[in-house]
Amino acid sequence: MDWGMRNRLSKIIKPDDSRCLMLAVDHGYFLGPTDKLEVPSTIIGSLAQFVDSIMLTRGILRTSVNPALDVPIVLRVSGGSTIVGEDLSNEEITTSIEEAIRLNASCLALSVFVGSKYEHQSLSNLARLIDEGEKYGIPVLAVTAVGKEMVRDARYLSLACRVAAELGAHIVKTYYCDNFRSVVTGCPVPVVIAGGKKLTEMDALNLAFNAIRDGAVGVDMGRNIWQSEFPVPMAKAVKTIVHDNYSADEAYKVFKHEKTSSETKAWVGNATSD
Ligand code: R5P
Q1: Ligand 1 center to residue 257 CA distance, Å?
Q2: DSSP string, 215-241
Q3: pTM of the model
Q4: Structural domains of the chain ordered from first start
């Protein structure tokens, strides 16, 4: 692996502990202005300092992220279908490698839809993107997207993750499931988990803890952070699980403490402005 590739990977998976906390804010590429992500600049501005990297599209990067912000970018480069369209799995590569270089991306992200009508297309997209990334030393994160009709079990996710790794993905993102260890064991590259739909804060912290315990190198979490009523305390709590080996209960204490501090600050702010 060349120096550039290793350097970029080290910005995503921190070399000190081989773990990563990625903030996913790419949802608008197929969902539009999702609840609590209507104005991405607000979320990104308040959370960037508490995560290792941000996953987003070029449109949100250009419009909503201050170029002076010192945070590595995981650039979502697949898309082309929406939640109201015919088939979400019908994706193409939507951003060129030259554009990714101009935008100083540290990693590229693309979804694969194993078992879907567009399985072949999405896997071919992945292989082509990896070839492009290899030319310039940019790693690729393969997102194993799961259609509504597909079961998120270890058998399916192991297949999807392994296929992505065999095609050359440098990191694979998937979902936590029963027997998650077997998914990690069968995948020769680092695995991160998506957070999925909004859960209670305690459940989301348990999910992150279980994934790390079972071999994930980290999380690429979105809704369970920015749909929380207290996104910054939640990001800080998830970080303690990823980087400080906190248990879910310990991390929840951090969440509650940070939540109380932010409520107090807001109260003092309101009181002094009266
Ligand atoms: C889905 O394909 C998107 O790439 C999201 O980035 C991913 O699902 C992670 O976000 P969340 O934690 O909200 O599931």
Answers
A1: 27
A2: T--EEEE-HHHHTSSSHHHHHHHHHHH
A3: 0.95
A4: 3-273 (3.20.20.70)
